[in-house]
Structures are given as C-alpha cells and as structure tokens.
C-alpha cells in the first residue's frame, strides 16, 4: 500500500521537468536574426566619349549596391550643376556594375553637367558632376569665283560649296558690299534652292563702282561660312541711241512695222546701255525691199518687211555689225582667224555666262556664234540670250574691236 501511494508524488516533478524542457527548446528554434539595413548604392563616373555637336556617351560604374537590388541606373544632364532633369536610363549594363547612357539632342559648342545615378529601395545616389563640352558646328568649305560678268547696275557672280562637312545647308548665296569681307548682314543674294554650285545675279548696284563679294552658306545650326574675298566692279553706262526714220503719212502696214521696230530697238538699246559701255549713234530705217535686215559700221541699219526680223534679237544682231562685227578690218585680220575667235575677253565672258569652260567663239567674215542671234530662228526672246549677246560684244570691245573707222 505504501508503494502505491508514493508513485504520483514521484511522477509529477518528472512531468513538469519534461514540459519545461520542451518549452525552452521551442522558443530557441523560432528566433530570426535581425535584418541587414539597406543603404544607398555607391557609383563613380568613369568617363564620357563619342562627343559630337549633338550627342555624347557616359560611362559609369556601380561600386556597391548598398545591400539592396538596383532598380534603375543612368544619367541626369543639364546646363546647370547637379542636374535632375533629362533623366536617361542606361542603355546597357553589366553584372560587374558598368553601365552606359547616351545623351542626345544636345546643342553644339555648349557645356553640359552630367552625373550618373543608381537607385535601390533606399533611394537614389549620384556621382559628382562631369563637365562635357559638345563640339562646334563644322561649317562648309566655300569658294568664291574670281571671274564675274559686269553690267552697269548688275553683276553676274559665282561660287560653290566645296564641302558641306556632312551638315545640312539651310541657305547658300553670295553677299556683297563696298567694304572688304562682306557678310550676310550686308546685301546678299540667296540661291533659290540651297544650290551648292552658285551662279547669281546681283541687281541695284551703282555704275562704274568697285565692290567685294563672298560666297556663303548657312547650315541647319545657323552657322555661316564664307569663301574668299573677291573684288569686282560694275562698268560705266553705255551711251547708245537711235533714230527711227518714219514717213509723215504712214500706211497702216508701215505704222505696224514702225511700232514693232521701235519696240525692238528700244529694248535692244536698253540692253546695250545696261550691259556694255559702248557709245554709238544709230540711224534705223524701215525698207520693205530688204529681205531681212542689214547694217554698216557708220551706224545705218535697215529693217525689211519680214516681221520675224522686226524683233529684239535682230536689232541686237544688226547693232553688233554697227559697232564693228564683220564690218571692220580688225575683225578679219585680228579677231577671226581660220574660223576661230582669237580674243580672250569675249571668250572669258562667254564661258562664264554659259557655265561651260569649253565654250569658244567661232565666226566668219560677217558673223560669230554662239549667241550671235544669226537669224530669226535663233531669237528665242530669252533675256539671258540677249544679255549674253551684248556681254560678248562688250568683251569684243575689250579685245580691241573698234566701233567706227
């Protein structure tokens, strides 16, 4: 009986010990270590490169993720220090931390502040600013032709763009001034279509006056380049006049002929006085018996009834005879030999006006070509035909052709 009664007293302490031991073991196994704190990442700016007028590359490196995950990296850039605008995510990056970002739409010849950034759950960290200077705009290489064709108040001038340097051109042309090295702030004549080969007419000038010209081009960035400075000059005004003999009681046919002939010689004389410095007095008559028209060096010109020859081209052709072409012995003894024109000035003007360096004047005892307007079929009515004709005559006068005996 005693042994039976004692058993519960022994068992209770043992149970309590087992329970206490189990509870202590369970608390120890469920404890978690404290989490490691995340800090801002660290990074450096390695370099910049591939700098142009409008683009550049930035190379950076993340040296520490700060114990977190990098969720974004790239650059911020602007014209002031510590930029936050123009945020640009890196276009490529490596597990070792290097990354590359591209800057675009920059302005030429401009200083920018650039800094790399990296972002994790703690926030965004930046590199110190890196200064970057875009390159200046490469302007075109220009050429101003030293040859030109002068009128009284007009100059025909030329030039070209030798190398646009890969930049789009906004405008090309030639500027002019009485002072050396003219700019586009002076008088300028722009080409119609941003031409790279320039042949331009400048009007509104003063007679017998020296000027300076330069070819120019302005590119898409607004930068202007100039060719060399070339001195040019207009010529003295010509002094050609004419008298048209008319019947005091003209028939209807004569009146119509007089009107056509007068219009033709008015225009032809204007060309001579505006594009040559020749002095000559002409006496024009209407003679129905003349098949086409004829002239002599004494200034007498006869025009026939064929209406195709009562035009400006015929008037110019006959006026050339009146100032010596085919009418003075100098023509066949000095200027036309073996059918080839021997003078230099007229050929120089011809080649400049036609823009063809191989053009050359030829002729016979009476005429020259091209641009001699030797027949109604050659009279197109084109202004440049008439101007080139009289400029060639001006060149012939410089080559020594006399206007009278």
TrEMBL record:
<feature type="signal peptide">
    <location>
        <begin position="1"/>
        <end position="20"/>
    </location>
</feature>
<keyword id="KW-0732">Signal</keyword>
<feature type="domain" description="Fibronectin type-III">
    <location>
        <begin position="37"/>
        <end position="138"/>
    </location>
</feature>
<protein>
    <recommendedName>
        <fullName>Fibronectin type-III domain-containing protein</fullName>
    </recommendedName>
</protein>
<dbReference type="InterPro" id="IPR003961">
    <property type="entry name" value="FN3_dom"/>
</dbReference>
């Amino acid at each position: 009986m005693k042994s039976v009664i004692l058993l519960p007293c022994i068992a209770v302490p043992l149970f309590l010990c087992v329970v206490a031991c189990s509870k202590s073991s369970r608390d120890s196994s469920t404890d978690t270590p404290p989490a490691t704190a995340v800090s801002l990442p660290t990074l450096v700016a390695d370099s910049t490169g591939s700098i142009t007028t409008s683009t550049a590359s930035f190379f950076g490196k993340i040296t520490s993720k700060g114990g977190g995950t990098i969720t974004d990296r790239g650059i911020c850039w602007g014209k002031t220090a510590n930029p936050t605008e123009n945020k640009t995510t890196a276009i490529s990056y490596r597990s070792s931390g290097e990354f590359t970002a591209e800057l675009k739409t920059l302005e030429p010849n401009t200083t920018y502040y650039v800094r790399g950034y990296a972002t994790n759950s703690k926030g965004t960290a930046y590199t110190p600013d890196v200064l970057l200077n875009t390159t200046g705009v490469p302007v075109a290489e220009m050429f101003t032709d030293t040859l030109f064709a002068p009128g009284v108040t007009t100059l025909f001038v030329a030039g070209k763009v030798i190398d646009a340097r890969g930049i789009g051109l906004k405008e090309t042309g030639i500027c002019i001034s009485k002072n050396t090295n003219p700019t586009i702030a002076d008088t300028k004549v722009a080409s119609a279509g941003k031409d790279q080969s320039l042949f331009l007419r400048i009007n509104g000038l003063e007679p017998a006056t020296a000027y300076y010209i330069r070819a120019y081009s302005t590119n898409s960035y607004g930068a202007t380049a100039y060719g060399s400075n070339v001195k040019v000059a207009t010529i003295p005004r010509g002094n050609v006049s004419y008298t048209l003999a008319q019947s005091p009681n003209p028939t209807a046919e004569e009146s119509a002929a007089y009107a056509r002939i007068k219009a033709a010689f008015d225009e032809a004389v204007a060309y001579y006085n505006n594009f040559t410095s020749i002095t000559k007095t002409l006496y024009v008559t209407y003679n129905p018996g003349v098949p086409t028209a004829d002239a002599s060096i004494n200034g007498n010109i006869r025009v026939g009834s064929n209406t195709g020859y009562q035009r400006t081209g015929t008037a110019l052709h006959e006026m050339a005879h009146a100032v010596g072409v085919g009418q003075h012995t100098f023509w066949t003894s000095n200027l036309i030999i073996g059918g080839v024109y021997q003078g230099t000035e007229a050929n120089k003007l011809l080649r400049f006006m036609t823009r063809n360096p191989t053009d050359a004047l030829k002729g016979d005892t009476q005429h020259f070509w091209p641009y001699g307007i030797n027949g109604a079929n050659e009279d197109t009515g084109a202004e440049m035909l008439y101007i080139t004709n009289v400029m060639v005559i001006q060149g012939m006068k410089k080559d020594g052709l006399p206007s009278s005996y």
